[in-house]
Automatic annotation (TrEMBL):
<feature type="transmembrane region" description="Helical">
    <location>
        <begin position="253"/>
        <end position="276"/>
    </location>
</feature>
<dbReference type="GO" id="GO:0016491">
    <property type="term" value="F:oxidoreductase activity"/>
</dbReference>
<dbReference type="Pfam" id="PF00487">
    <property type="entry name" value="FA_desaturase"/>
</dbReference>
<protein>
    <submittedName>
        <fullName>Chloroplast delta-12 fatty acid desaturase</fullName>
    </submittedName>
</protein>
<dbReference type="InterPro" id="IPR005804">
    <property type="entry name" value="FA_desaturase_dom"/>
</dbReference>
<keyword id="KW-1133">Transmembrane helix</keyword>
<feature type="transmembrane region" description="Helical">
    <location>
        <begin position="125"/>
        <end position="144"/>
    </location>
</feature>
<keyword id="KW-0472">Membrane</keyword>
<feature type="transmembrane region" description="Helical">
    <location>
        <begin position="282"/>
        <end position="300"/>
    </location>
</feature>
<feature type="domain" description="Fatty acid desaturase">
    <location>
        <begin position="123"/>
        <end position="373"/>
    </location>
</feature>
<dbReference type="InterPro" id="IPR012171">
    <property type="entry name" value="Fatty_acid_desaturase"/>
</dbReference>
<keyword id="KW-0812">Transmembrane</keyword>
<dbReference type="GO" id="GO:0006629">
    <property type="term" value="P:lipid metabolic process"/>
</dbReference>
Length: 422
């Protein structure tokens, strides 16, 4: 199941990958506003060039501004290899520091405990805030296990397996199935179909949908509910033994048993002492908050109007990992609780970099390869594009919306209601 789609800004924004040399292209007009911006306003469309190298620096800056990014990079030359990019970073960014690793684990345990206490004392009208904080803290648990899965938490793999299993269990996320499929995502980032984390739906798939299926996909992947789409990914990819090789199955089953142990001991105990309301209050809502961040981080990092998913024959590892991954800044407290998971470009250049070295690695990448990187601050325009416009794969346009053939009231209403910026 493809759980990736997105598109652009406020309206129908059909992304047309054409050269931008025409008067309706991106070149700034005399009044200081781009012709493209007028096109977006009047025709509800904008132009994405076949290559970012077709644009001047000023045009790319304007395109970035219009789409909600602080910068959009040039296209990385196909002659650049991923090994070249990896070797350009200083050796110290790959070094594992056990003290920092265990402190991050302790930080997540303390922050989650504190947020659960906050939930326990918060009046009903402040519970959404407490749940949001708890969901963010819960995401930190995932990131600790995430580093363990990438073998960047500890120099002992057994310790990493134990840590990963322990921190994933309260999320009911089986560690080993996730590790296997997530490593596949890293090996095939932005490769159409092969990328197991997030990729646009192809039109061939939609032809098999009946009216009910089409309606469900539109409802869950064409609205803000898309920020919880990782729940579907969690259910589909991690609990089917048939998706794993014979030699992987024993470890997969152990991970399932760890989740089952939590589900059938900790959760019943929570119900016993706090009732079913307590289960919702202290576990389900933070768990949903975690999935909000899981989905949102993944979508922002790997889906942008100007970044294509490619078929295997056209795929380039360096282009996908360096130029095809988006760096996004979030409020500091979110980055702290989530252990800088948003500092994502170096993580895709090499998943062996521990989270606490990602900023230094990013500085190095900016110095050596910054002209090819895409960056942004978390903002409403990007999210609105993701919800309403970036849905289906298109070889020429990168993405198109579910209603690309004819505007549908369901999407038209949302485009009118949701502001372009907050």
């Amino acid at each position: 199941m493809a759980i990736s789609m997105q598109k652009m800004g406020g309206s129908l924004l059909q992304v047309q990958r054409k050269a931008v040399s025409s008067p309706a292209g991106l070149r700034p007009s005399l009044n200081g506003k781009s012709s493209m911006l007028r096109t977006m306003t009047k025709a509800n469309a904008f132009t994405i060039p076949a290559s970012m190298n077709d644009l001047t620096d000023a045009e790319r800056h304007q395109l970035a501004k219009d789409l909600g990014y602080t910068k959009i990079g040039k296209e990385l030359p196909s002659t650049v290899t991923l090994n070249e990019v990896v070797r350009s970073m200083p050796a110290e960014v790959f070094e594992i520091d056990h003290t920092k690793a265990w402190l991050s684990a302790l930080t997540s345990i303390v922050s989650m405990s504190a947020s659960l206490y906050l939930i326990s004392i918060a009046p009903w009208y402040l519970l959404p805030i407490a749940w949001f904080i708890a969901g963010t803290a819960f995401t930190g648990w995932f990131v600790v296990g995430h580093d363990a899965g990438h073998r960047s938490f500890h120099k002992n793999n057994l310790v990493e397996d134990i840590v990963g299993t322990f921190f994933f269990a309260p999320l009911l996320f089986p560690f080993e199935p996730w590790r296997i499929k997530h490593n596949h995502h890293h090996a095939h980032t932005n490769k159409l179909i092969e990328d197991t984390a997030w990729h646009p739906i192809t039109e061939d798939v939609t032809k098999d949908w009946n009216a009910t299926a089409a309606g469900l996909f539109r409802f869950f992947l064409g609205t803000p509910l898309k920020c919880f789409a990782s729940i579907g990914h969690w259910a589909i990819w991690h609990f089917n033994l048939g998706l794993y090789k014979e030699n992987q199955k024993p470890r997969v089953i152990v991970s399932w048993l760890a989740c089952a142990a939590f589900a059938f001991t900790a959760l019943p105990a929570l119900v016993y002492y706090t009732g079913w309301v307590g289960l919702v209050k202290f576990w389900l809502m933070p768990w949903l908050g975690y999935h909000f961040w899981m989905s949102t981080f993944t979508m922002i990092h790997h889906t942008a109007p100007h970044i294509p998913f490619k078929e295997a024959k056209d795929w380039n590892a360096a282009q996908a990992q360096l130029a095809g991954t988006v760096h996004c800044n979030f409020p500091g407290w979110i980055e702290f609780l989530c252990h800088d998971i948003n500092v994502h470009v170096p993580h895709h250049v090499s998943s062996k970099i521990p989270w606490y070295n990602l900023r230094k690695a990013t500085d190095s990448l900016r110095e050596n390869w910054g002209e090819y990187m895409t960056e942004c601050d978390f903002n409403w325009r990007i999210m609105k594009n993701i919800w309403l416009e970036l849905h289906l794969y298109d070889e020429d346009q990168n993405y198109k919306s579910f209603d690309f053939k004819k505007p549908e009231p369901f999407f038209t209403l949302q485009r009118k209601i949701y502001p372009n910026a907050v």
